[in-house]
Amino acid sequence: xxxxxxxxxxxxxxxxxxxxxxxxxxxxxxxxxxxxxxxxxxxxxxxxxxxxxxxxxxxxxxxxxxxxxxxxxxxxxxxxxxxxxxxxxxxxxxxxxxxxxxxxxxxxxxxxxxxxxxxxxxxxxxxxxxxxxxxxxxxxxxxxxxxxxxxxxxxxxxxxxxxxxxxxxxxxxxxxxxxxxxxxxxxxxxxxxxxxxxxxxxxxxxxxxxxxxxxxxxxxxxxxxxxxxxxxxxxxxxxxxxxxxxxxxxxxxxxxxxxxxxxxxxxxxxxxxxxxxxxxxxxxxxxxxxxxxxxxxxxxxxxxxxxxxxxxxxxxxxxxxxxxxxxxxxxxxxxxxxxxxxxxxxxxxxxxxxxxxxxxxxxxxxxxxxxxxxxxxxxxxxxxxxxxxxxxxxxxxxxxxxxxxxxxxxxxxxxxxxxxxxxxxxxxxxxxxxxxxxxxxxxxxxxxxxxxxxxxxxxxxxxxxxxxxxxxxxxxxxxxxxxxxxxxxxxxxxxxxxxxxxxxxxxxxxxxxxxxxxxxxxxxxxxxxxxxxxxxxxxxxxxxxxxxxxxxxxxxxxxxxxxxxxxxxxxxxxxxxxxxxxxxxxxxxxxxxxxxxxxxxxxxxxxxxxxxxxxxxxxxxxxxxxxxxxxxxx
Length: 634
Fold this sequence. Notes:
The chain is built from eleven helices and 34 strands. It has a domain of 204 residues. A hairpin with a 2-residue loop joins strand 7 and strand 8. The N and C termini lie far apart (148 Å). The chain has a 32-stranded mixed beta sheet that branches. The protein has a two-stranded parallel sheet with strand order 5-9. It is of the alpha+beta class. It holds the Pfam family AsmA.
């Protein structure tokens, strides 16, 4: 019927045709699933499973993956997986790839993705991927970057269980379509964060415009974490690098310390606050600039920059206040703000015994400059303040801590360093220069006084609390005052209880004018002992001797009063100060007249070292009253 040649021709043409027919009849895109799984698993570094694969051919083919699943890493439960996507569709511009080897995806749609984020410890989580690296010794060559036209997320859900952050949250994620505009990203979160209830809502621009540095990405975030409220609104010029931002950040809450879990920077306890300013990211720093607001009863302004770096970020801040209440800043120096409950002290002790929290000191490196133009508050004689604070690896340097008082000042320089086993090693010095007595008296009910106080103090110690440091300290104290009002000063500095009792025991009138006061004391292992204490008033000369034990908070001190003008009734009187700081006692002890017969009365019995004269002159200036007293005593 057919010649051999015809039969051979039919065989060579029919077999390929039959193969094509059979391929069309039985073709399945599922044959490529193992290839897709291998490629994706190699790229992510963990198993990826694909339930189904289909391709809808057309001018712009559509690739559809169903039942896509990305497994958890080893050590985590198999179910639920890290991610499960019931349907993922990608439109592919095949002609662009065939002609120019460009990967163009005009549209990606992710339907009902469910992502499970787990974190059990520092660095131990299921969302860190060991992406494939180039072979050692051969540089990785980046492949062609895909161009994506639009990304749509339908009914996405993220469940986060992050133990280190105390977080258990559900986040609903989807894109919202708007006529004639790119779809916008919308996310809404509920649950707990830092063991506090959290609600958050984010409305951003198109997801893919994140990659377009020249296209500002709009963002609005409203967040409430417990009582803390955050609002962020504006645009970011380069979203992936968070640079060129025009963002307005508003914060309010009862305590800045509650921001620590949100920011990763440890903040001390504060009174209620309200702050606003601009937020951006540049030069590797998150910057909060043009900040203005209130902290308790104080206004606060300035700039703060945080440089994320390993486990200990670097914080640089330049802050200022027109008016500040020091009570609002108590948390920054280890105290408790006025609106917070004060810690109860045990055993009737007076000195602060709250342990220094060294882990908090090591949580960040801090460089702070702070200026306060006016200091206000109850019984506050200070005018202004300047602080330069540096904390590096837990070591604190205060150089300087300066307070202005009238025409005078109090200048301190302090260094604190953590020691093995806990606590701090401290070293500091304070200089008092022409501290205005009238300012000190002005905040008392007495409201009188004049003259100036000057001198210096130094201390070197170690301990876990302020009470422990003072109880172990070594150093010294030198003070001098020319002029002023003794009665008001004693009541102000000693407290009404001991002040009035001491004045009564001394037999001094309500207003005793001071010619000169000089004190030179030594501190050894927490015991403050007298080298010289001398008070020259209009009518009397008072000298002091004894010890003040800061560790045990006990007084063992004696004041001797001698009248300048001897009369029959003007017998020398010793005033005994005994007891504890919390419960002191003051009682007179009249010295027998016979024991004083033949004794030199007055300056000749008192030795004052000339070495303290420069300190006196520095603190109060060249005042003839104190200089004369020192020289006459010699």
